[in-house]
Model the fold of this input.
Amino acid sequence: MKKDQLKKLLIKIFIKYKLSKEHANICSDALVNAELVGAPGHGLSRLKMYCDRINKKVINPKPKFKFKKISSSITQIDANNSIGFVAADIGIKRAIESARKTGIGLVGIKNSGHYGLSGYYAEQAVKKNFLSLIFTNAPPAIAPHGALKTLFGTNPICFGTPTASKIPFILDTSVSMINRGKIRVAARTGSKIPEGVALDKNGNPTTDAKKALEGVQLPIAGFRGSGLAWMVDILSGVFTGGNHGGKVKDPFDDFSGPQNIGHLFIVMKPNLFVNNFNSRIKENIKRIKRLPKLKGVKEIMYPGQNKFNRYKSNINKEIFIPDAIKSDIEKLLN
Amino acid sequence: MKKDQLKKLLIKIFIKYKLSKEHANICSDALVNAELVGAPGHGLSRLKMYCDRINKKVINPKPKFKFKKISSSITQIDANNSIGFVAADIGIKRAIESARKTGIGLVGIKNSGHYGLSGYYAEQAVKKNFLSLIFTNAPPAIAPHGALKTLFGTNPICFGTPTASKIPFILDTSVSMINRGKIRVAARTGSKIPEGVALDKNGNPTTDAKKALEGVQLPIAGFRGSGLAWMVDILSGVFTGGNHGGKVKDPFDDFSGPQNIGHLFIVMKPNLFVNNFNSRIKENIKRIKRLPKLKGVKEIMYPGQNKFNRYKSNINKEIFIPDAIKSDIEKLLN
Done:
């Protein structure tokens, strides 16, 4: 299906599920974007889940956002159990506005839900020529170092910066060895996951995606990755007023209440300290790209470059929709 | 040697090398602290290097700091090639003051040098009851993903938060598999380094510390760790006005000019968004600590806890000083 056609269908579905036209548009853009950048685990595979959560009244399709302006740089947003896409869209826009006025914008959001890819919001900041640091927590997926039970989410660390070129630098890395979304897609399609990324519920290594979902995902770099996941939980959960410490509900499996995910956006003007950020970042990337390369490496890529290339190559192609999801879409439309 | 005696000697040396009494005190505290927390790679093993750099006029012992106040939250500091400890001490204090007034403090420092452990400055913020994110770059040690040559420093990511207990949560993790300081200590003492943390100059795995110093340190988690190192280089170098993209000089080997390291401090009030941060962070840590544990694990530790325990157990003990460093100290005193 072409992206515009898909977007129209998604808008129709979200409006049927009581979102405003504006909010339906935001959510549809985010889902289509996830498919185009090659992150289907954050795309259509979640559509039915969002609609189910609206049906079960654990996502509020008509949220009333409460803004608490703490200073000209700092705002807290209570997202009133909004779908995460809308809360994050409002949050990043507010952080950008604050940074435009004061040099730095800080927005903490509580009572939100899963918002897809952090990089999608960093990209908004880059397009307006701002740096950003973005943190969000997520349902338990990774065991803290030393623990036999999952508690941290895949808790991405996201950083974006303008590059003085049309391809933004966007690092959006979960602190697990593999994205939970990818495991979920593998479980749905019956494919294997790589070795060394997950344990089953008894603590044994597994390549079976379903067993991995019941078990434990491994953090990157042991104690270090575990510490980074903990940092993200504190910044996006403890600090903002959102759920934390393993209390964020799995959106697919737990309909006993809203997720109350927290997000934290820090946005900064690139020319705060220097008047030639563009030439500095260009020079930085150039120096790294011209290093001698490992055998078989054509180009040293910066974070976000591969994603941009995938987006560009996919934008006029048909978006592949697995049969299970096609049938979801049909049911949701009728 | 007991810590107070050691500190007196260090102050004497730094004053002999033309630092003010106040600056000598700051530097000596930082070096003694590194020894006490069990990070000798950031301690006495660097003393002679600092003095040599002062002698060669690539560290300025009498820096004139230039402050550029960008807003009530944001300051840039030109450290005038100060020793890093002093620049960082001034920087974190300024960031704390800004955060006290406005909720958030952002300080970018350029023309600084190696400042030891990021966690040491995060600890200052925690003691005043603030959260902090701290970034600094460093001389080339890690190869970017896909490259055959080092360019990124070990570029630590540091995050600190009050915990409502006397033991702060301080994550201070380099994005290399091992700290360069540890390899340096191993090279000086002739001990081996672990497997899988470094390659020699030809790209072959090595456990020989000297060969590792000539070669490449491996980042954590491949492309992810490389991306995190790149992020730190941009935030602390490109953004602040410091050197970046592999231009930070190795302080031990390159006396052709000052290092011009950049640092970035972000400090935030814990109660910006919630009025019960203390009870929330306490609950967060409690939930994680009471998870079922892996075999052999007595307690799930949060970042900073081990370091604090080492500090506490070392504080009244003799600080072990290897012979090579004893002889450095004697020469520097005479």
